[in-house]
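[[Encoded backbone]]
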Amino acid sequence: MSVRTSSIFALAALTALPLSAAAVQTIKPEEIGLSSERLQRVHEAVQRHIDAHDISGAVTVVARKGRLAHLEAHGLMDIDSNKAMSKDTMVWIASMSKPITGVAILMLVEEGKIRLTDPVSKFIPEFRGMKVAVMQEGPAGRGGPPAAGAAPLFYTVPATREIMIQDLLSHVSGLVSGGAASGAELAKVARKPGETLADYIPRLGATPLDFQPGSRWSYSPGAGFETLGRVVEIASGQTFDRFLRQRIFDPLGMKDITFHPAQEQLGRVTTMYHRANNALTKVDTSARMNNTSYFSGAGGLMSDAEDYLQFGQMLANGGQLNGKRLLSPRTVELMSAIFAPDTLPGRPKGRSFGLSVQVINDAVAANTRISNGSYGWDGAFGTHFWVDPKEKMVGILMIQTDNPNRELNGDFENAVMQAIIE
């Protein structure tokens, strides 16, 4: 039975709520090795960024040893109406959807329906025989870059191998991974209103890869994990949204997470802002909110902080929560193993990449306070989470500001880790 904290959690109460018990037991954070006084620095760190107009507000979560030690709302969910952020505020988690897609794939790996080394073309034949774009400075015999506004100049060569499922999970496939050629070609196969994954994803097979598979790391913000969502559909025989609901969300008690908020949830959806020039301006979300047919495993989900905590705690528990096992402990270890090391071109020092999650392999080089072996990911509008196996900890930061000041991630991590006293 998943715990849903319906009562107000006050930091001053010095309580922590169990995540995997039939009856709620209240304990002091000190009983799980955290300082209740030092946990107040989480609010102080967030408030500094509110005062600097980096964000309008936030919801923060800290859990350790399977107990919820901190759940706090800060600032405003809407500036114009002066509406306070609430603990059950729903946010667009954007690319924090990707680890959920990763778990879906790994569940099917465990069932023998997918192999990590399977070529994507096994499920989507249009991905067979893909080409790789090679950029040119100008037409043959004429040097210099193309004119402003002109299409990028490139030619294609055959890929040295097919892209595999694990390539998509670890962002080494080259599929729409930030290159000018694939970006321009993507426009030619653009998704149309009302299309589904089944309609759209096969057309991505016609786009050139940005580099030879496995030769570098470069983030695929949409195409890679949306393709994985389609693979889930084909391998499972269910639509992606139904698979997630039946196999992940319902078993974990994630009642609010959704691709498209219901009418009764709209009042809890925070306003989204763009940060620029020391100010926050509203972002028009009507197009995304009105899209009801496309289920993006790359960045389509909305959630509140406590729902996402159920997911994070499942990973921290080695694949199970409240008697519901989604993955084996060995598979969770595989998910957080290093598939793209920090020595691969494109990865920053200390930060390797696993299967849908960043993995900290050298905290000092990565300039982070969380432990080596910690893993997690972020979202475009500032959401951030990590699982720290060494400290048996889950941290979650929910904000809704694009062009986020990512220094907040480090400040939040620091405030959490300095609260550990044993």
Residues 113-236 form one domain. The two ends are 29 Å apart (CA to CA). The CA atoms of residues 64 and 393 lie 4 Å apart. The chain has a mean pLDDT of 91.
